[in-house]
Specification:
With about 475 residues, this protein is an alpha+beta fold. Helices cover about 40% and strands about 25% of the residues.
């Protein structure tokens, strides 16, 4: 959508203007030469101001960043991660300032402390004080009691949280992941006994996520009681999110005839893996394995995948996985002959390396269905890394509002995590660096105060090259 003329007249070289929720924010922008793509690449910089029809251009410090009268006695502060957040997360920060004007600085400080330090509430102020964020956001009140009150208040503003989601709404393909659990040792009404992925029956809260496939980022979440895993929760989730092009990617434990009927009756798109023991899978054509009986093949992650269409079911055979499972089973015959035998090997060998996916995506190719299902695995792996990094698989929040507010803080940190991950992927750096590697390297970069002037500390060439490749060059 074109920007209004009264907005455009304030744009200056080296700046870009973004429409976020009907408000116009000004960011620094620069470009670097991308040798791999043989063209320049735009790098969005930090938020520097906003434009209103009444007041024109307002520098950031003018509309909400008043300097403190008492300066911090600290002469050295963490700067690298602060730089990543301010230079890469401008859209997020601008929207937080717009939707949560009284809490935005606290949200940013808390998300920062969770992302970098896995900090409990009592230590948020410590990490804030030792970070250059305290210079960018000098008026943030980050005592543990104040942060606790802010989280409760934030949790009562689900309408604002939904507006935050909608600002990043996408028309591309989305995947609705049917839930992960968060252990909750409180009396919250959402904390209910339920089975988690480890088979444990404990008080927990279930978490539904919708991920945008193209941006490789979460665009929506919803909390549910720990004992809820029903199709109607999918329908309500899709309705609230406003995302129409979303497909439910379930796990193997979800399949049942009644669940399929409910999905179909509610016109919900789905891909559901079946257990290999499922009676609806027709393995006859694979016994013995004969490629002539297959419908075709494709390549996925440098592996050959054969497939066979069986009405609404696609049966896939991963050749490398099949060989791995054969070798694994034969080794077990040698090490555990009381449980495994060559006779049993021959009986089930035709099922090795198979994945059966049930789906109502009738106009979608088997290759795309397989790719979407595999996306779930990649998302789960990355989300597990995030939960481990943030120690975010449990919470002690005592109220539903507290749970909602705490989850939104983690959602912000999660989107920042994915932003760094996506930048590493775009620059083909994931084989060398993880998100945690980036955070740890960046955290060693300091701002040093000399005669009331802040200077960036010395940086190793390796760390500087890494940060310059994924964010605005650090200064």
């Amino acid at each position: 959508m074109a920007l209004p003329s009264w907005v455009i007249k304030h744009r200056k070289p080296g700046q870009e203007i973004k429409d976020i929720g009907g408000r116009y924010y000004v960011y620094e922008v620069s470009s670097v030469w991308d040798s791999s793509k043989k063209r320049t690449r735009k790098i969005s910089g930090p938020l520097i101001g906003k434009i209103t029809e009444k007041d024109g251009y307002l520098a950031r410090e003018t509309y909400g960043q008043k300097a403190l009268m008492i300066k911090s006695p600290l002469l050295s502060k963490e700067y690298g991660v602060t730089h990543l957040i301010s230079s890469m997360m401008g859209d997020s920060i601008g929207l937080l300032e717009s939707l949560f004007p009284t809490e935005s600085q606290q949200i940013i400080a808390t998300a920062y402390a969770r992302l970098l330090h896995q900090s409990p509430l009592k230590n948020i102020s410590l990490h804030y004080e030792h970070s250059y964020l305290s210079e960018l956001y000098p008026e943030a009140s980050v005592g543990s009691k104040v942060i606790g009150q802010m989280i409760q208040s934030l949790g009562r503003k689900r309408d604002k949280i939904r507006q935050y989601f909608k600002a990043f709404k996408t028309d591309g393909e989305c995947l609705l992941i049917d839930g992960t659990h968060i252990l909750n040792r409180s009396n919250s009404s959402m904390s209910e006994l339920g089975y988690n992925s480890q088979g444990n029956y404990k008080p927990q809260v279930n978490l539904l996520f919708i991920f945008a496939k193209e941006s490789r980022s979460p665009v929506y979440y919803r909390l549910l009681p720990g004992n809820i895993r029903e199709v109607k929760s999918f329908k309500m989730t899709l309705k609230e999110s406003g995302l129409e092009n979303a497909t439910v990617i379930a796990d193997k434990g979800f399949y049942s005839k009644s669940n399929i009927e409910d999905l179909e009756s509610n016109s919900i798109k789905y891909i559901i893996p079946l257990r290999r023991s499922s009676s609806i899978i027709k393995y006859d054509s694979l016994c013995p394995m004969d490629k002539k009986n297959m419908s075709g093949y494709f390549s996925f992650a440098n592996r050959t995948i054969w497939y066979q269409k069986q009405e609404s079911l696609n049966l896939f055979v991963d050749e490398e996985l099949r060989m791995e499972e054969e070798r694994s089973y034969l080794r077990r015959i040698e090490t555990h002959p009381e449980d495994y035998s060559i006779e049993a090997f021959h009986e089930r060998s035709h099922t090795f390396g198979t994945i059966a996916l049930l789906s109502n995506l009738t106009d979608t190719t088997p290759e795309k269905i397989y790719s979407q299902y595999k996306s779930r695995g990649a998302i789960e792996q990355l989300f597990d890394s995030f939960k481990n990094l943030l120690d975010a698989d449990k919470t002690y929040m005592r109220t539903d509002e507290g749970l909602e507010g705490w989850m939104f803080i983690h959602y912000i940190a999660l989107t920042w995590y994915y932003k760094i991950y996506s930048a590493l992927m775009d620059q083909n750096l994931l084989t060398k660096f993880s998100v945690n590697d980036v955070l740890q390297r960046a955290s060693k970069i300091k701002k040093i105060n000399i005669n009331d002037q802040w200077y960036t500390s010395e940086i190793t060439a390796k760390s500087k090259n890494l940060l310059d490749n994924i964010a605005k060059p650090i200064t």
